[in-house]
Amino acid sequence: MRIVQLEDARGFPFWRRPTTLLFLMAAAMPLAFATWSALLNNFVIERAGFTGVEIGWLHTVREIPGFLAVGVIAIIIFMREQVLGLISLIMLGVASAVTAWFPTFGGLLMVTLISSIGFHYFETVNQSLQLQWLSKKDAPRILGVIVAIGSGASLVSYGLLVATWDLFDLSYNTVYLISGGACAAIAVYCMMAFPQFEAPDPQVKKLVLRRRYWLYYALQFMSGARRQIFVVFAALMLVERFGFEVHEVT
Q: Which residues on adjacent β-strands are paired with residue 5?
């Protein structure tokens, strides 16, 4: 693969610049993840007969790769971060695309684990690439654009589900294939269309912890616990107890 220094890449056309790659990756991930999340509770109840126990186990398995995301440090010793990020995005897209093919407890645990590895490793590497590729002057503005693109992609996914689920009598398999396939296709395009960008300063390949950041670490831990309790059981209750359909709970 061709390696290009960031300084040299500034003269590239817009569609081949590092920022464009970050924009595309920011749009691709929510197409798969937001759709997977929106359909999950209805799918596991209607097709796999899940209760709160099974959905609890499913989300427990989903968080294991997040807890072990520190393993990225070992992988980037022999694999470029840009390559790892795109491979992780492909894993997320493909695993999401085939979710409806495995309507069993074991099958869903398997595809959820694969998609979660892709999601958490992509998120870890993506944040690292953003900080490496963006200058201090441009970072606040471009990071805001990246967040907006990701939120916009999620809104588009949710909006299309609400508008088309009943109208076209869509199936879980169709929606999962389209959303996951779109995510994987964008990642494959990015692998082919963009060179390997080289930051001027080499990435530190070790775990760095700072005692003065203890409050930030604690808040992150508690935020994750609060979010998972709500995500795991609130939407499930709406579907299981109150019969919400896909377009309603979305």
A: 198
CATH number for the domain harbouring residue 230: 1.20.1250.20
Nearest one of 48, 29, 104, 40 to 239, comparing CA atoms: 40
DSSP 199-240: -SSPPP-S----GGGHHHHHHHHHHHHHHHHHHHHHHHHHHH
* β-bridge partners, 3: 196
Whether 5 contacts 200, CB under 8 Å? yes
Query: What is the count of structural domains for the chain?
Result: 1
Q: Could you tell me the residue range of the domain that residue 233 belongs to?
A: 3-249
Q: Which residues pair with 4 in a beta bridge?
A: 197
Burial label for 36, CB within 10 Å (0-12, 13-18, 19+), is buried
What band does 236 get if pLDDT is binned at 50, 70 and 90? confident
